[in-house]
Design a protein that fits this description.
With 238 residues, the chain is an all-alpha fold. It has nine helices and no strands. It is elongated, with a radius of gyration of 28 Å.
């Protein structure tokens, strides 16, 4: 018996021929189209557009703080730049993958958000500015410090909500891990935008109010994002 006899006995002709593909498979293959590559900044643009509607509307009303014109211009610009930087940095790291990556980096997002919050705390503690006789104190409006802080912190959290909801939609398939850290960064970004708005419209300039009401509200928004985003994504998946 030679090799040819062995092959013919063990492997009869046509035994290994592949079956023809099913019509459904052929139809699926023929219907395939190239998948559009996800834009690296697409999620950032979506969340920014949705989240900025409320802040832009509030600032467009023109109801600015009564002491805005009396404050040093350099300080007004510096404080606004700090709030804006905290917003941009936190939002970008939560939604934009690092160069060469596909998904956002939760570790970088939480670190940037944490540094941004710490910077806001330090600045407001050491460099909050008020003009005697022009800047308003809570007691001038018959409010306690606690009441004024609750009012402003509520506005900060309300400003952060659209960023969190839009971020939930944008990250629904991009956050398999690190959801709490990404949520923290999203909340910090939304809160920082709320603080940016308050910088121009809040009449209360006392250090305690700004630290507790403005920055405290931003920290509260970041904590809410860290808790809510993972929970909402789990509910959506279930």
């Amino acid at each position: 018996m030679n090799r040819e006899d062995f092959d013919e006995r063990m492997l009869p002709p046509n035994r290994l021929d592949a079956p023809p593909p099913s019509p459904d498979l052929l139809k699926a293959i023929q219907g395939m189209r190239p998948v559009r590559t996800r834009a690296r900044f697409g999620a950032l643009a979506l969340v920014a557009v949705v989240g900025l509607l409320l802040p832009v509307g509030v600032l467009a009303r023109g109801l600015y703080r009564p002491d805005l014109g009396a404050l040093p211009l350099g300080w007004v610009i510096a404080a606004a730049a700090l709030w804006a930087t905290a917003f941009i940095a936190s939002l970008a790291t939560a939604l934009v993958p690092l160069h060469g990556d596909v998904l956002p980096a939760p570790g970088s997002a939480s670190r940037v958000a944490g540094v941004s919050l710490a910077g806001l705390v330090i600045f407001t503690l050491l460099a909050t500015f008020q003009v005697p006789g022009v800047s308003v104190r809570p007691e001038d409006r018959h409010l306690t410090l606690f009441q004024s802080c609750v009012h402003c912190a509520t506005l900060v959290v309300e400003t952060a909500v659209p960023f969190l909801l839009a971020g939930l939609f944008a990250l629904r398939r991009l956050a398999p891990v690190g959801r709490a850290r990404l949520g923290m960064a999203l909340g910090a970004a939304g809160g920082a935008m709320g603080g940016f708005v308050l910088h121009f419209i809040c009449p209360y300039a006392e250090t305690a109010h700004v630290v507790l009401g403005h920055v405290g509200g931003t920290i509260l928004a970041a904590a809410a994002g860290a808790v809510l985003l993972p929970a909402l994504l789990r509910l959506k998946k279930d």
